[in-house]
Amino acid sequence: ETGVTQSPTHLIKTRGQQVTLRCSSQSGHNTVSWYQQALGQGPQFIFQYYREEENGRGNFPPRFSGLQFPNYSSELNVNALELDDSALYLCASFFELLTDTQYFGPGTRLTVL
Amino acid sequence: KQEVTQIPAALSVPEGENLVLNCSFTDSAIYNLQWFRQDPGKGLTSLLLIQSSQREQTSGRLNASLDKSSGRSTLYIAASQPGDSATYLCAVDKAAGNKLTFGGGTRVLVKP
Predict the structure, then answer these.
(1) pLDDT category, B109, cuts 50, 70, 90?
(2) Hey, which of A4, A64, B29, B73 would disulfide with A105, CB 3.0 to 4.6 Å?
(3) B42, B97, B103 member nearest A42 (Cβ)
């Protein structure tokens, strides 16, 4: 167990809806990255938050947005869901930007119908 | 744009055989390379991290090599066990900060 938790575990939504996924970082970690992993593929970097500010973004449209709270928990929001958004969403936390070791949560499986 | 490729996509071996997993990347300007293990439907567990200045890293039965100039890394798992069955992913980081670019993974099955 890494100490990083994600909720919910599974989620089913319909096309066009909005979804919020949550991540609770390991204690003391102030940086969180979010990844999208489609079935049978490797994870793709969505964005990273450091001390409540966005610190880099991958090739994802603006309908993917995030928040990091003062307690360093975070959210991933996706608007106007599309079928291709069906994936495992992973968050990973670590302390400060120069640390190489990050800890991944178990993921949230999102299915868009 | 960095691209990471893992070949083969799937591998099946009898217990006791050594495993050789390959990873290639297109841009040699990397900060580090990491190997992860992923069990079905689960998150990622870091196995080995190789800094760009290093040639290899070892942990128990696992050994990973890095040839930055040719854009290749290899993960060796000695004397495979059924418990090694999982998907193995390699990922590169362009600069410090853990914004990783992953390969597609190699799905490994070790048969008893």
Answers:
(1) very high
(2) A4
(3) B103
CA angle A89, B90, B40 (to 5 degrees): 45
Cis bond upstream, residue A8 (ω within 30): yes
Give yes or no for B2 touching A (CB within 8 A).
no
Rounded Cα distance, A67 and A54, in Å: 8
Phi and psi for B46 in degrees, rounded to 5?
-70, 130
> Measured between alpha carbons, how far is A51 from B20 in angstroms, rounded to an integer?
40
The verdict on a CB contact (< 8 Å) between A33 and B98 is yes
Kindly report the average pLDDT of chain B as a whole number: 95
Is A24 within 8 Å of chain B by CB? Answer: no
Q: Does B46 touch chain A (CB under 8 A)?
A: yes
Cα angle for residues A32, B57, A91 (degrees, 5° grid): 15
Q: How confident is the model at residue B97 (pLDDT cuts 50, 70, 90)?
A: confident
